[in-house]
Fold this sequence. Notes:
Blueprint: H1 10-24, H2 28-36, H3 39-51, E1 60-64, H4 70-78, E2 84-89, H5 92-104, E3 111-115, E4 128-134, H6 143-153, E5 154-165, H7 173-193, H8 197-208, H9 212-221, E6 225-232, E7 237-244
Parallel strand pairs: 1-2, 1-4, 2-3, 4-5
Antiparallel strand pairs: 5-7, 6-7
Helix pairs in contact: 3-4, 7-8
Bound molecules: S-adenosylmethionine.
Amino acid sequence: TSYGFSSVGEGEKQGLVNDVFHKVAKRYDIMNDVMSGGMHRVWKDAMISVLNPPKTPGWRFIDVAGGTGDIAFRIVEASRKEALGTVLDINGSMLGVGQERAEKRGLASHLEFVEANAEELPFEDKSFDAYTIAFGIRNVPDIDKALREAHRVLKRGGRFLCLEFSEVQMPVLDKLYEAWSFNGIPKMGQAIAGDGEPYRYLVESIRKFPRQADFAAMIERAGFSRVNWTNYTGGVAALHSGWKL
Ligand code: SAM
């Protein structure tokens, strides 16, 4: 298979993304550690401390492109098991792995798993106190539409947080990162998951994603206020924040 991503239209893109995650679902968690050298855990923990969920009942969040549950589990645990969450993903294989993990960790009663598209959230306006998305938005064909949906389902005063790979802003590190992502990551994918192509696609999607300031402008256009971002590891990842005021 070829994931010749640059030449595909929006409709096709989602199909390719789905293929990639159906293929990798079972090994997704281990691949995350390998590809990021364990850094994704540090970035995710940082995201949760920025969110700082209240340790009181009645607070609801949605984790979009939630995959195998990494973000949602952290939020529920940080709230001392008070928060209730919805893990939404377009891919049933990823959600299946997430549901199994939630049961093993005793978190299943705090979470619901919903198979749906980030571009069309099956929820009423003003349903959630927080919307999180980690390493997901760059896979969505129509990012502006997904951002408008995020704004719609949040309550007034609700928080939007997006963790995503971004533009490396340190000299040397950017070169190292490029070498690792274009050669290292597909090779590791080949070795561990038996197929390098999906990982080549993932690396390409990172390169195409808008840089920090441009993405912040998109979030503002969707209606969010007080938009800003924090770079992690020199900009390998960035956390964007916004409020629905
Ligand atoms: N958030 C998880 C994490 O940080 O470990 C999973 C991130 S994984 C790299 C990206 C996820 O985005 C996949 O589970 C994929 O199925 C999901 N995804 C891709 N396109 C989507 C869409 N249009 N709507 C919802 N989820 C989508």
